């Protein structure tokens, strides 16, 4: 049921729903919803956590496939893009407006940025990426990811979060390519 809730929230957001409406849409009782979480707010946070937990597993799995560091970075950021693609504008607007859910997204963004920095460090150390200051690249990626998360990239470019991550992947990989 929590996965169905995630899909509903991704498609339509969560602010507009009452528990009665959620129970009706999910074909369950309110007591079933209360068994998952004690309030609508806690249900939202549980669903957002589930979404990002599933996304993290898929992203890490995808990033583990390529052998080269540049390919791994690209795979990682493109997988982030793919995982965010089903989330509609209402979901992101509701995330931004609800601090507990926004914190889940922010925490996930920080973790993803650290992971990109680790991938850059490994590639530079292995000599498969051009010599670069991995901490700087990580800090720059963190800033862009934070701007994506905060909606500043969408406001400046009309790119949704998924498209912005795809562009970030292309930029980082091109910038680190060994000539």
UniProtKB/TrEMBL annotation:
UniProt keyword list: DNA-binding, Transcription, Transcription regulation
Pfam families: TetR_N (PF00440)
Annotated DNA-binding residue span(s): 18-37
UniProt-recorded Gene Ontology molecular function terms: DNA-binding transcription factor activity; transcription cis-regulatory region binding
Domain HTH tetR-type: 1-55
Protein name: Transcriptional regulator, TetR family
């Amino acid at each position: 049921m929590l996965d169905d809730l995630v899909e509903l929230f991704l498609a339509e957001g969560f602010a507009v729903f009452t528990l009665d409406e959620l129970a009706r849409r999910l074909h369950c009782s309110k007591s079933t919803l209360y068994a998952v979480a004690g309030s609508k707010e806690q249900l939202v946070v549980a669903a957002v956590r589930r979404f990002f937990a599933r996304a993290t597993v898929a992203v890490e799995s995808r990033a583990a496939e390529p052998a080269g560091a540049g390919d791994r970075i690209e795979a990682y950021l493109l997988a982030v893009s793919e995982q965010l693609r089903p989330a509609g504008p209402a979901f992101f607007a509701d995330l931004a407006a609800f601090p507990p859910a926004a914190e889940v997204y922010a925490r996930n963004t920080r973790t993803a940025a650290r992971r990109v920095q680790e991938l850059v460090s490994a590639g530079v150390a292995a000599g498969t990426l051009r010599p670069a200051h991995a901490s700087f690249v990580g800090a720059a990626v963190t800033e862009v990811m934070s701007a994506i998360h905060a909606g500043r990239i969408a406001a400046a470019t009309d790119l949704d979060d998924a498209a912005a991550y795809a562009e970030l992947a292309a930029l980082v990989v091109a910038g680190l390519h060994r000539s």
